[in-house]
Amino acid sequence: MISTINAPLPTVVSGSQYKHTHRPLVAIDCIVFGYDEEVGLQLLLVKRHLDPEKGRWALMGGLLDDNENLDQAAQRILYRLTGMTNVYLEELKVFSHSDRDPVERTISVTYTALVNIHNYEHQITDEFEARWFPTSSFPELIFDHNEMVRFAKQQLKYKANLHPIGFELLPERFTFTQLRKLYDAIYETQLDKGNFRRMMLATGLLVRLKEKDKTSSKKGAYFYQLDTDKYTTKLNNFYL
Amino acid sequence: MISTINAPLPTVVSGSQYKHTHRPLVAIDCIVFGYDEEVGLQLLLVKRHLDPEKGRWALMGGLLDDNENLDQAAQRILYRLTGMTNVYLEELKVFSHSDRDPVERTISVTYTALVNIHNYEHQITDEFEARWFPTSSFPELIFDHNEMVRFAKQQLKYKANLHPIGFELLPERFTFTQLRKLYDAIYETQLDKGNFRRMMLATGLLVRLKEKDKTSSKKGAYFYQLDTDKYTTKLNNFYL
DNA sequence: GATGGTAGAGATCATTCTGATAATAAATTA
DNA sequence: TAATTTATTATCAGAATGATCTCTACCATC
């Protein structure tokens, strides 16, 4: 049996506050994945700017403020530490081990995002030395941030299986080879060209453009583009 | 652009605390689903025992204490309000709208569980008037608890699609008809008998017993039992 | 004791999906 | 011209799926 099972229940209201002494800080940590064809799947990190562990690499994190919910806090924190705006962040999991932060009891709500690195090339600020690292090799992180990243990577593979996820990571126009290489990076494998093409086409989410990409082949590969309408309705209806 | 995006970042450490004034309460709310062949899918609720909204129906909720993480808090709270022990609780989502609790800023981490009602028939205490309600019609709940239940029901359908979930809801020995009726309840549909049997057998998770259930048929239906070893390894390997 | 009802347990069949492999197409280079 | 590279399409066998039907055991009733 767990040790705290006999701890007291919260007591009744006094005035306009609950009688409860334990008020932890609530933090948000953002795990942002990007993709680059040269270096593969990438993870965005910043240098921590406060003690303890000042100067070490960490996820983009901050504390929940008054008058904002967690989604808003995640947006704000990511913006203040990296300059990125309009990132689609999704709640991942709460990390709440009682001494995960040595300074003070802090629980952390993690958020994940997938972004196209090159869309933010010029937007990312240098203030906190935000930098991309390959997901296969990045520095040791503070606190339990390593565990957070491990969990997020698992979740990414899992979701990519079910959702036609990952378009966020590519340029607006892309070839099948580019798309397949992205999936290869996520799964750390090599998918079959023909079958991958058939599978992706079967979703009906791709629109073939007239132009071809001649950079990586002599024949030239058609550019494709996401049918954003179908894509959003598909994502939204997924839970039905 | 969101309104709080220019709010301050957390400041540096002073002594052994972060300089941050906003310390919300952290609550846990448990959404427990049960199943009964007579009445279908059920939801466990308790009468709220403190103001405001005292006496109204609510999810089993409480506040996070020192020296416990959220998983432990969820176990403790569920035990103190219902008497249930050893329930497999899973984190669902954090609800954090800044005025979701009128008394004081409180964020709530929700947990879900699936249990076999009849395993807890005698364990559930009367102290907080815990009661089962059909998921199709239960009383209006306090705060944002209705929204929490809605979200949990969606999630349940979604997961039942992918995982061979739901065995928690049945007695240890069950017939195919019982199992199918449970899935019918979750999906609010009528699945085909033959195909359902074939599908479930294909998972290799069921063991046929020698005995038959004669209550609902003259011929008698074989009892089946979950191969718990295979089941747990399957669940654990799902994220790989 | 023949008939029909009921619920369990399988069988069958057409369709689709999937993985693997091969064939074709278009351009470049040796 | 032949070889090479990458893109694209075709083919084929096996698995999975949905719909429908058959068969079995038992009971009730005429």
By oligomeric state, this entry counts as: homodimer
Instruction: Using the alpha-carbon principal axes, give the shape of chain A.
Output: elongated
Number of helical elements of chain A: 5
Helical amount of chain A:
25-40%
Query: How many strands, which pairing sense, and closed or not: the largest β-sheet of chain A?
Result: 7 strands, mixed
| Total number of beta strands of chain A | 12
Q: In what range is the share of β-strand residues of chain A?
A: 25-35%
CATH homologous superfamily of the largest domain in chain A, by name?
Nucleoside Triphosphate Pyrophosphohydrolase
Give the CA-CA distance, first to last residue of chain A: 37 Å
CATH architecture of the largest domain in chain A: Alpha-Beta Complex
What is the name of the CATH topology of the largest domain in chain A? Nucleoside Triphosphate Pyrophosphohydrolase
Structure description:
The structure is a homodimer of 240-residue chains. Chain A has helices spanning 70-82, 145-162, 176-187, 193-202, 228-236, and strands at 13-14, 17-18, 25-36, 40-47, 57-58, 60-63, 90-95, 106-116, 131-134, 173-174, 206-213, 221-226. The radius of gyration of chain A is 21 Å and the shape is elongated. Chain A is α+β, with helices and mostly antiparallel strands and 240 residues long. Chain A starts with 12 loop residues before the first strand and ends with a helix. Mean pLDDT of chain A is 86; it is low at 1-10. In chain A, strands 3, 4, 5, 6, 7, 8 and 9 form a 7-stranded mixed beta sheet that branches. A 3-stranded antiparallel beta sheet of chain A has the order 10-12-11. In chain A, strands 1-2 form a two-stranded antiparallel ribbon. The longest helix of chain A has 18 residues, at 145-162. Chain A has 2 domains: 23-161, Nucleoside Triphosphate Pyrophosphohydrolase, CATH 3.90.79; 172-239, Arc Repressor Mutant, subunit A. Chain A is built from 5 helices and 12 strands. Helix content of chain A is 26%, strand content 28%. Chains A and B meet through β2, α1, β7, β8 and α2 of A and β2, α1, β7, β8 and α2 of B.
